[in-house]
């Protein structure tokens, strides 16, 4: 078999050299190309059985699947314990290598691990060199943690793909469909899901001008506003609706008049040294 020369080496080398240059649109495109290759195999009823970062070649930034040494038609497939890298291997196979017949869901598991690698830029279990230890961790259900900044749709996709139960893994057709509908606005950060559009809009709408006076404050900003005054400050006309625990801060000779009852919480209002009056508006 003669294959095309890949001028960017394999996926592992490519991520080592170019990961910081990749945005999420590019990462999703790379995932689509790998999934397209797996789709061709599965449509021909062939299982690769050894998908990992060294078997994905990169040519001009495009992904190509290679190394079909373990690939077999499902009609002729037999149980085998030859080959495979544990971190990418179906846990069912790792648990029963003499009994378990690797099939399409086995490739889907490997694909899920590859997708996580696209999100992180590093190989799975990179700090563990003992393949037996990796196998035991995978069998026990341990997976790599999500990476901050990952679109939630992409995270959920690879989580489903590397499910320990082969029956719960999506088909390659389902994976390709979901890859075509990845939303980029809901992003994973720790345990939180952040809407990036809201973050950008909030930063635009709420700001301090160069004199330290707050402008364009929106009423949707959360509560618990701390407004603290120094010992010489005078605070007139504070509305009854402002919480009793509210502290008011201004500089030493400032006076903060007309605090509106719509002042949102968690906002620190500080006046400048030039003693400008701070007027908070809706």
From TrEMBL:
<dbReference type="InterPro" id="IPR001245">
    <property type="entry name" value="Ser-Thr/Tyr_kinase_cat_dom"/>
</dbReference>
<keyword id="KW-0808">Transferase</keyword>
<dbReference type="Pfam" id="PF07714">
    <property type="entry name" value="PK_Tyr_Ser-Thr"/>
</dbReference>
<feature type="domain" description="Protein kinase">
    <location>
        <begin position="1"/>
        <end position="184"/>
    </location>
</feature>
<dbReference type="InterPro" id="IPR000719">
    <property type="entry name" value="Prot_kinase_dom"/>
</dbReference>
<dbReference type="GO" id="GO:0004674">
    <property type="term" value="F:protein serine/threonine kinase activity"/>
</dbReference>
<keyword id="KW-0418">Kinase</keyword>
<protein>
    <submittedName>
        <fullName>Kinase-like domain-containing protein</fullName>
    </submittedName>
</protein>
<dbReference type="InterPro" id="IPR051681">
    <property type="entry name" value="Ser/Thr_Kinases-Pseudokinases"/>
</dbReference>
<dbReference type="GO" id="GO:0005524">
    <property type="term" value="F:ATP binding"/>
</dbReference>
<dbReference type="InterPro" id="IPR011009">
    <property type="entry name" value="Kinase-like_dom_sf"/>
</dbReference>
């Amino acid at each position: 078999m003669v294959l095309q020369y890949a001028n960017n080496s394999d996926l592992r080398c490519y991520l080592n050299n170019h990961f910081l240059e990749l945005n999420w649109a590019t990462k999703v495109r790379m995932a689509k190309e790998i999934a397209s290759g797996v789709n061709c195999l599965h449509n021909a009823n062939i299982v690769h059985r050894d998908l990992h970062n060294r078997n994905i070649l990169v040519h001009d930034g495009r992904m190509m699947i290679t190394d079909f040494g373990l690939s077999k038609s499902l009609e002729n497939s037999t149980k085998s314990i030859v080959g495979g890298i544990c971190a990418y291997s179906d846990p069912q196979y790792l648990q029963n290598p003499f009994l378990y017949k690797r099939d399409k869901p086995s490739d889907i598991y490997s694909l899920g691990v590859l997708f996580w690698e696209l999100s992180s830029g590093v190989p799975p279990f990179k700090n563990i060199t003992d393949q037996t230890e990796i196998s035991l961790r995978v069998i026990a259900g341990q997976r790599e943690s999500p990476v901050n900044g990952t679109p939630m749709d992409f995270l959920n996709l690879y989580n489903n793909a590397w499910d320990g139960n082969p029956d719960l893994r999506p088909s390659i057709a389902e994976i390709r469909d979901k890859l075509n509908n990845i939303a980029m606005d809901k992003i994973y950060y720790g345990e939180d899901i952040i809407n990036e559009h809201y973050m950008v809009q909030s930063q635009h709408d709420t700001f301090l001008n160069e004199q330290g006076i707050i402008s364009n404050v929106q009423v949707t900003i959360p509560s618990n506003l701390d407004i603290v005054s120094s010992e010489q400050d005078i605070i007139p006309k504070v509305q009854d609706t402002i919480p009793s625990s509210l502290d008011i801060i201004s500089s030493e000779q400032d006076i903060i008049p007309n605090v509106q009852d719509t002042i949102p919480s968690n906002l620190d209002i500080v006046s400048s040294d030039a003693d400008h009056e701070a007027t908070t508006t809706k």
